[in-house]
Design goal:
By secondary structure, the chain is α/β, with parallel strands linked by helices. Helices cover 27% and strands 23% of the residues. The chain folds into two domains: 239 residues, TIM Barrel (Alpha-Beta Barrel), CATH 3.20.20; 96 residues, Lyase, Ornithine Decarboxylase, Chain A, domain 1. The protein has an eight-stranded parallel barrel with strand order 2-3-4-5-6-8-9-10, surrounded by five helices. Strands 1, 11, 14, 17, 18 and 19 form a six-stranded mixed beta sheet that branches. The structure holds pyridoxal-5'-phosphate.
Length: 405
């Protein structure tokens, strides 16, 4: 028999730690977010307007991807800052995220990137636009008995292989959505699989083929008398590099946070400003003799007399354990190596023979004098998206506005 559940009522878990001097901090510069938004807009507009017709109008809408806590930056504050700076819409992955945006006071379009089967009436009531990728999604929407029509964006697969039927099946499902009394067809979209790779600029490449298939679908819809208001395809990479993929709306995520989607894109598009810097306090320091071992498994041995400092950040905070004996942090403007294995809550760094350090002094973990998110992630065998979205709840999020200083 299942144990009787006991009441655990009480205040909700706070999302992030308080910014106490004892905590690691992720400091987010709202001015950097605005700078990146402007940069993305300037690329997206690119002189190509609605559906590449040359009708420039005011350029495509900008939908900011703020799923996964705005890529670890903190969703509510980031979305409010981007909205104030002119972002038109927001993209999220879950019903919780969509409703949290509304609870945080965000107006404007909110699009759920994936189909959902739960909480549909709540979402419709909150004016969240839903994705329909298959006939079953429409059936579920109709069965949900929502108060009014849901704004629906039809998702078609043109080569990503994740969600949606083929572009060929698009018109039939679009027509079904348009006919439904539970839905209003307002958008049609696809997602690009290789827009951050050299293929993106290749006329015979996958990105090109995806865009051709998408344009053909839009033409077929048009022939059926269906012209959803927003056609969209572009992630950060396509927004920055392929203005012909802008259509009516672009959906950048990672580049808003000042990180390029790939090293290849970084080389082509300079000027993004990383919005997040992560640092953590020194909690202890000691001078050790040559031959001293450090940490679990005793995998690091001092080659000389040196100062080893303990830092209050570990893999439970999102610092990859694979950077044991490999990572580099930033201290007083220089790089200092991780000594031994990264622990759950702490790690040790070798400050060198002259490493006079104060307890409480802060050491850069990502950005500042430490390598940036792309470099740290690369050294860990990962990529920046994963590193940023895994920054844990024990890392306090702080917001600064460089423009106000
Ligand atoms: C996450 C996501 C984006 C943003 O992608 P970036 O590479 O971060 O720009 C855009 N569209 C969809 C559907 C997404 O899931």
């Amino acid at each position: 028999m299942a144990p009787a559940s006991r009441s655990v009522d009480g205040p909700a878990d706070p999302p992030f730690a308080e910014a106490s001097p004892d905590a690691p901090w992720a400091t987010v510069d709202l001015d950097a977010l605005r700078h990146n938004l402007t940069l993305l807009r300037s690329h997206a507009a690119g002189g190509v307007g609605r559906r590449g017709t040359g009708d420039t109008g005011s350029g495509p809408l900008l939908l900011a991807a703020v799923k996964a806590d705005a890529y670890g930056h903190g969703m509510a504050t980031v979305a409010r800052a981007l909205r104030a700076a002119g972002a038109d819409a927001f993209g999220v992955a879950t019903a919780d995220e969509a409703l949290a945006l509304r609870a945080a006071g965000l107006d404007g379009m909110v699009l759920l990137f994936g189909p959902v089967r739960q909480r549909i009436p709540e979402l419709v009531e909150a004016g969240v636009a839903l994705t329909v990728a298959a006939p079953g999604d429409l059936t579920a929407l109709e069965a949900a008995g929502a108060p009014g029509r849901a704004h629906v964006h039809l998702k078609v697969d043109t080569g990503m292989g994740r969600l949606g039927g083929s572009a060929h099946a698009g018109p039939a499902l679009a027509a079904a959505v348009a006919r439904s009394r539970a839905a209003e067809l307002v958008g049609v979209w696809t997602h690009l699989a290789t827009a951050d790779e050299p293929d993106a600029l290749d006329r015979d490449g996958r990105t090109e083929r995806q865009l051709v298939a998408f344009r053909e679908l839009l033409e077929r819809l048009e022939r059926h008398g269906l012209r959803p208001r927003w056609a969209h395809a572009a992630n950060s990479a396509a927004t920055l590099l392929r203005p012909d993929a802008s259509f009516d709306l672009v959906r950048p995520g990672i580049a808003l946070y000042g990180v390029a989607p790939s090293a290849w894109v970084a080389r082509r598009v300079p000027g993004l400003r990383p919005a997040l810097r992560w640092d953590a306090p020194v909690t202890f320091a000691k001078r050790v003799e040559a031959g001293t071992t450090i940490g679990y498994g005793a995998t690091w041995t001092a080659a000389r007399r040196t100062v080893v400092a303990t830092v209050r950040v570990g893999y439970a905070d999102g610092y990859p354990r694979s950077l044991s004996n490999r990572g580099r942090l930033g201290w007083r403007g220089r790089r200092v190596p991780v000594a031994g294995r990264v622990c759950m809550d702490q790690l040790m760094v070798d400050l060198g023979p002259d490493g006079e350090v104060e307890v409480g002094e802060r050491v850069d973990v990502v950005g500042g004098a430490a390598p940036d998110a792309a470099e740290v992630a690369h050294e860990a065998g990962s990529f920046a998206y994963e590193l940023l979205t895994r920054i844990g709840a024990r890392v306090a999020r702080r917001y600064v506005d460089a423009a106000e200083r």
